[in-house]
Amino acid sequence: MIGIQYFALFVTAGILLNLTPGPDTAFILGRTVTSGRRAGIASAMGISVGSILHTFAAAVGLSAFLVTSAWAFTAVKLVGACYLIYLGLKVLLQRQVNLLAAAHSKANDFGSAFRQGVLTNLLNPKVALFFLAFLPQFIDPTATAKVPAFLLLGFTFVITGTIWCLILVWFAGAISQHLRAKERFGRWMNRAVGCMFVLLGLRLASSR
Fold first, then answer.
1. 51 and 161 in contact (C-beta within 8 Å)?
2. I need a surface site. Which of 8, 31, 65, 140 has the fewest CB within 10 A?
3. Where would I find the H helices in 5-109?
4. Is the pLDDT higher at 25 or at 101?
């Protein structure tokens, strides 16, 4: 494949990395469990769009700016951390209602879940650094078309990741649908997801 080396190894490594739980996976599962399968799909699509934007940014060298500029990395990191903490507190502080009914109403707000997915992904500078560090290893140093090769690798990684995320959404939605009908479990689930978002934000803020 023009400009790319060890493509089969890249696909294998990409799939294994996608299977490794991370902040994006936690966010998608959290939205699916609390708001239903439709919101989970929207979150997965939003994160995929964010990853595509990261791919373009890395291809044109914007991610390199985060590597060389400590203040830019810190600024993006803190904004992303604050956003995750905000989402967590929003879930924790919202009035407790029947989660089954809430899931149906929130599931209609596809756009909100999609936007949250995009922002959660874009405001994590570690994602940008990952694309910048991982993808170039599979680009032929002698290739003249490095940017197209970079984009192709990025899109391949996003596609495999999206497929895995949709599988997670399907199973999480199937399991949580009948559990949401139990009011006590629903309250616990809301609190657990809210705490998870806050912890993810704190973890991102403390990362280097």
1. yes
2. 8
3. 7-19, 23-35, 37-60, 62-68, 70-93, 99-107
4. 25
| Bridge partners, residue 139, by sequence | 4
Q: Tokens 């990025």 map to which residue?
A: 154
Give the residues across from 4 on adjacent strands.
Answer: 139
The domain spans of the chain are 24-206
Neighbours of 105 (CB within 10 A): 11
Name the more confident of 13 and 189: 13
pTM of the model: 0.71
Question: Quick count: other Cβ atoms within 10 Å of Cβ 72?
Answer: 14
Tokens of 8: 């089969």
Interatomic CA distance for residues 163 and 193, integer angstroms: 23
Each residue of 160-169: b (16+ CB within 10 Å) or e? bbbebbbebb
Q: How many CB atoms lie within 10 A of CB 93?
A: 8
